[in-house]
Every structure is written in structure tokens, then in C-alpha cells.
Amino acid sequence: MKLEQVGFNRYRLPRQGKMRVSGLVYASPALLEHVRGDNSLQQLAHAAQLPGVVEPVLGMPDIHEGFGLPIGGVMAVSEEGVISAGAVGMDINCGVRLLRTELSADSFDRPLLRKLMTEVEALVPTGVGKKGLHRGITARIFEEVVYQGATAVVKAGFGCPEDIERIEENGCLPGADLAEVSREAIKRGSEQLGTLGGGNHFIELQRVDKVFDPEVAERFGLFEGQLTVMIHTGSRGFGHQICTDYSKGHIPAAPRYGIELPSKGLACAPIDSAEGRSYYAAMACAVNYAFANRQIITADIRQAFVQVLGLRLEDIGLQVVYDVAHNIAKWEEHGGRRLLVHRKGATRALPPGHPANPPVYRGTGHPALVPGSMGTASYVLVGTDLAAESFFSVNHGAGRTLSRSAAERSITKEEFEASMGEILYNTRNFRDVVDEAPQAYKDIEEVVDTLVEIGLTRKIARMMPMAVIKGKD
DNA sequence: ATGTGC
């Protein structure tokens, strides 16, 4: 693909072939070879062919090839345009929540960290296909969950109302309709609420090792040396089934509206069509489910800490700093226009003062949460006014550099163990985690710096992992 | 990502 440098760390993907608009890709010189190393630019060009797409389609510095839109892609569409399940992703509202504590990380030795990991694992099922431990309650409130999101589980006793004001969209996307969700998805979803999943999903005990902006960090409740907990999970089999159902269903739907599909992965329907409205309503169910999932896991983590530490919750802390979606399509106002912004492996990052910030973060901009790999740092960022050019979006992580199978082929046990250093992890079998090895990911520092150097985002704090809980059989 | 290949 033809790519033109248009500034420091910025590249234009000019209109070529059937592209309706151009693309804009952020990459440092070192990341550029990764960007060119797979089909992600081709996939971005395909997205630029869809009806109603708004200039530009974007590639974040963590971009890599995915199903339909590349992971690390942003596609905004006007009201006359299309909605695409493949441009949201398989794991609808895969996202990250950060919890703060009142505790110094340095007072946690390895045996105590191990105890905490064991207790968290006892309360939060991890691994593919696992069923939740609160099935009695969650089956009963399942319908409320898909319509009300995190609020439904707070009402059921998981967490407190203050948590809700620190979740993107207050933990609930309007417009959900369970009638648009298949029985299969409902079955899988009602069993899996309150579970972590596998792959890149994790619960991490972290230490804030650097504060870059003390004033904003204080507003976020963060300080150097602090123990934090990060949760990365999504809508489990529920969102996966919804994505599968609609990306298949929209393949025959698209031509009925005269849409030429550039790829099956970008199957889509007009937003204002029966098929498009159905997907949006089903997607909103999964978005709300994922917010509720992270809310239940938060309550479980609080319980684990109280049990292990023998302290009162108010002395531990574990308040929500923020909760962001990484895979979502949302109606937002940009430049006076109402757009459906598809973010797939991208994080909304609003600047200080933006009216769409939650009231508690109106003055600072909300925290944008960006996890690294299991052996490297995670970041708390905020957006700047310049991020208007990316529809107020930043990267969502480090981004893969090796596919899961390539990681299994090329990374040795010794290399993996060396890269983890002193960091504790729950998986005993190297084969179970090799696809998540730090070597399979880009350098998070390079990825974040790419956007910071442009001025699209600012660093607020950096956390280093102390103990990582991953999906386990 | 995923009751992990159609």
C-alpha cells in the first residue's frame, strides 16, 4: 500500500483503488515496519471503501491485522453510513478497568501477593469456557444487565453507586434490545457473567512506578509506590456469539442495499436499516454485559482483598479510577456532526473540559487506560485538543507483533521466564501463556511515545505489574 | 477474542 509521510510519526494512506476517504496512521520510524508487516493497511483501505465513512480512517501505533477492521483501527461513519460487526470486534466492549488502593505496593512481599492471587482466582473463574460462580444471581438479573449494564449488578449487591460515575457512558449504552440477540448468545452469556476469560485478558496487581503529572494523578487518586489493580476482560462468549451471528448475517444483507463488501470481515448494513438497527441493539446488550462483568469482578476482588488482608474495605480502597471500552461503536458528536465511531482496539481519550467527560473528570479529561503485555508497563493517559483529528481516540495497548501461532513457534521457555523477571504469574505451564509472552507484543513505551510525541495524548502515570492472573484451564 | 478449524 502507498503510504505518505505527512509529519513526525504521521502517515497518510492516500485514496487509492475504491477508497472513498484517505487514512491516517500513527507510527514511529521503528513501528513503521510492523505496520507494513501484515495486512492491516489493506484492511484500513477496505474500511475506507464503506458507504458513509468519514475522513480519515485511522490506524493507531499498535495496529495489527484483525478480522475486518484491523485491531488498532478507528472508523467513524455518518448517519447515512453503515454499521459493521467486524469493525467493533469479536469481543464486544473488551475493555479495561483500573482500581486504586490506599496501600503502598512495597508492603506486599511475594507470599502475600501469592495469597491474594490465589484468593482472587478462587472468586473469579478464569480461562476459556468457564462459567460464573454467581450463576444463581446473574441468571436472574441477566435481562436487567443487558439493558442497564453496570447499574444492574450494583443493585444486586456488587459494588456501590459511586463506581458507576467512573465508567465510560456510566456503564450503560442506550438502545439495547435483547430480542435482537440469538438464543445461543443468551445461553452462553447468562452462564459466563463474572468470569475473566482467556487470551490477553487478565487481572493484574500493579505498582505505580512513575507519576508524570502529579496534579492530574492526584485527581485520579494515583500516587507513586501505590498498589493498583487492573482488570482486562470483555463480554465473553456473549459478545463473541453476537459478532459471529451478525457478521455472517450481514454478508447477504449488504448487497440488498447496494453495498459492495471489500471483505467478508467488514460485512455491514446501513445504520438506518432493519439489519443495521438489529446489530446495534444486540451490540449494546453485549456492551452493557461487559461493563457489568467488570463490575462483578471488581466486587469479587474487593472481597478477596478483605479476606486476605483482614482490613476493612474503606482502609484498603479499591475504588474505581475508570473503566474504558476498547471495542465498541458509539454515537458521538464530532465537529458538530453526529457520527457512529467504531473503535476496535482503540481507546476514547477526551481532553480536559470536553462536555462528554464524566463530571468527576470534566476538568482533567477522563483517564484513558492502556495496558502493556504481561511483563511490561501499563499507562494512564489523557487526551488533548489535538486528538480531535482521531475522533478523540488513542491506542489500546502495545499491539501484537507475533500472531499466537508464531509466538508458540518462536519463543522459548527461557526467553519468556527472563522477560517476566520478578513478576509473579499464575500459569504453571509455559505452553498456556507463550502466546501472551511480552516478546509477542510491541514495545508499549514506543507505542505510547509515538502519540505523546505528536501531542495527541499526555502521560499521567505508569504502572508496573507485580502479579498477573491470566486465563487458566 | 472464542464451548479456539467449516
From TrEMBL:
Cofactor: Mn(2+)
Protein name in the entry: tRNA-splicing ligase RtcB
Entry keyword annotation includes GTP-binding: yes
EC number, as in UniProt: 6.5.1.-
Positions contributing to Mn(2+) 2 binding: H232, H326
Subunit structure: Monomer.
Family: Belongs to the RtcB family.
GO molecular-function terms, A-Z: GTP binding; metal ion binding; RNA ligase (ATP) activity; RNA ligase (GTP) activity
Active site: residue positions: H396
Cofactor binding notes: Binds 2 manganese ions per subunit.
InterPro entries membership: RtcB, RtcB-like_sf
EC primary class: ligase
Pfam families tied to this protein: RtcB
